[in-house]
């Protein structure tokens, strides 16, 4: 989220690499931006250690108090996430998640009381691509595949599948050389009481909101669709459809953060479009499922038979007996019951 915060806390807006974004951020957002900036509880910087680029993430002195305060807000606004308030808890979770997701090639470790040192992942954040208008459907697919992979991993913390809790685009790094997306930044976590499906749908929504808020017409829709199609998990997409309503009450502030304070009417329109797409997808799946159920397929099950003379089952016997009848109208067997003459 730091990219977003950096942009919003300056009037003109500055990208992490020092460039200005395509559109300046309106002045009226500065008050809200300052509030958001106050949620910045870490400082992050890069170093080269033993010839390897690393990112050092350090908790600020007042971070625990700030995280506690933010958590009060989340509780009151009924937003089912929270910051790891205790530095020790955050360090443990940040290192654990980074290594679980990226440990095939990269490592993170605790370093000192309030610091995490992680290998710098190659590539740039998806947010960088988004605001430079260089985001492609291929990148969106890579992000969806990574999120889906992560959602399949077991988490002891949740006693169920893992979820991110803050899966916005600044927290997804895409490497153009490998076509691989990776997740970072694990200081926010979903409430444990929330089931896996709503947690996963929330991750999908948070990621999509960046596109819906920032990507221009007409690109936003194909980008969003590429993401949903590659995520490809019907139960979570069905849950997402239910979670597309705009927030009410105090949840608006966080919604503003999630959508870069974009025009709510625009975001609403785009969410409605996504809802329509998801409904079509559900109908299509239901229709495809119905057709599959109605199509009789050849049996591929082998039945056990006894060696020797095959047994004639009752159906075969009945067919044979009806064939022996004098004519189709005359039964070969006499009726066993007699009826009084009418
Ligand atoms: N391991 C990493 N490899 C590459 N870049 C990283 C890595 N960790 C952090 N970064 C860069 O630093 C930025 C900030 O890091 P991170 O998201 O972990 O913390 P944060 O932004 O301070 O937290 P928040 O998102 O809550 O503000 C990221 O958006 C990314 O650009
Ligand atoms: Mg971040």
Description:
A four-stranded antiparallel sheet has the order 1-2-5-4, covered by helices on one side. The model is unreliable at 1-29 and 298-342 (pLDDT under 50). It contains twelve helices and eleven strands. Helix 6 packs parallel to helix 8 (220-231). The protein has a single domain, classed as Transferase(Phosphotransferase), domain 1. The longest helix has 31 residues, at 264-294. By secondary structure, it is an alpha+beta fold. The structure holds adenosine-5'-triphosphate and magnesium ion. The site of magnesium ion has 5 residues, from loops.
User: Major sheet: order of its strands?
Assistant: 1-2-5-4
Low-confidence stretches: 1-29, 298-342
Count every helix, treating DSSP H or I runs of 4 or more residues as helices: 12
Say which molecules are bound, naming each kind only once: adenosine-5'-triphosphate, magnesium ion
Computed CA radius of gyration, to the nearest angstrom: 29 Å
The number of E-state strands comes to 11
| CATH architecture identity | Orthogonal Bundle
Overall pLDDT, averaged? 81
Order of helices and strands: HHEEHEHEEEHHEEEEEHHHHHH
Which features would summarize this protein structure in a list?
single chain; 342 residues; alpha+beta; Transferase(Phosphotransferase), domain 1; four-stranded antiparallel sheet; three-stranded antiparallel sheet; 12 helices; 46% helix; globular; disordered N terminus; disordered C terminus; binds adenosine-5'-triphosphate; binds magnesium ion
């Amino acid at each position: 989220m730091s990219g977003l915060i950096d942009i919003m806390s300056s009037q003109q807006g500055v990208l992490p690499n020092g460039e200005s974004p395509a559109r300046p951020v309106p002045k009226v957002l500065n008050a809200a931006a300052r509030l958001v900036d106050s949620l910045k509880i870490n400082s992050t910087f890069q170093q080269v250690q033993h010839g390897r680029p690393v990112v050092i993430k350090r908790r600020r002195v007042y971070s625990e108090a700030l995280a506690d305060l933010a958590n009060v807000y989340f509780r009151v606004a009924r937003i089912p996430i929270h910051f790891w308030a205790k530095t020790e808890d955050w360090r443990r979770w940040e290192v654990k998640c980074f290594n679980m997701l990226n440990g095939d090639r990269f490592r993170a470790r605790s370093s000192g009381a309030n610091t995490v040192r992680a290998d710098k992942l190659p590539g740039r954040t998806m947010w960088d691509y988004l605001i430079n208008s260089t985001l492609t459907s291929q990148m969106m697919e890579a992000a969806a595949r990574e999120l889906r992979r992560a959602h399949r991993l077991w988490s002891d913390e949740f006693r169920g599948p893992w979820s991110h809790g803050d899966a916005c685009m600044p927290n997804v790094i895409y490497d153009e050389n490998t076509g691989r997306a990776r997740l970072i930044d694990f200081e926010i976590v979903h409430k444990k009481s929330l089931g896996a499906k709503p947690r996963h749908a929330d991750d999908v929504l948070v990621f999509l909101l960046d596109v819906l808020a920032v990507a221009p017409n007409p690109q936003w829709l194909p980008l969003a669709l590429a993401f949903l199609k590659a995520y490809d998990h019907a139960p979570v997409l069905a849950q997402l459809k239910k979670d597309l309503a705009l927030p009410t009450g105090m949840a608006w502030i966080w919604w503003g953060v999630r959508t870069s304070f974009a025009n709510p009417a625009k975001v609403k329109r785009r969410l409605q479009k996504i809802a329509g797409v998801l409904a079509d997808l559900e109908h299509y799946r239901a229709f495809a499922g119905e057709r599959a159920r109605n199509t009789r397929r050849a049996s591929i099950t082998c039945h056990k038979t006894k060696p020797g003379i095959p047994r004639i089952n009752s159906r075969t016997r009945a067919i044979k007996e009806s064939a022996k009848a004098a004519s189709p109208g005359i039964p070969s067997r006499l009726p066993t019951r007699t009826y009084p003459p009418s």
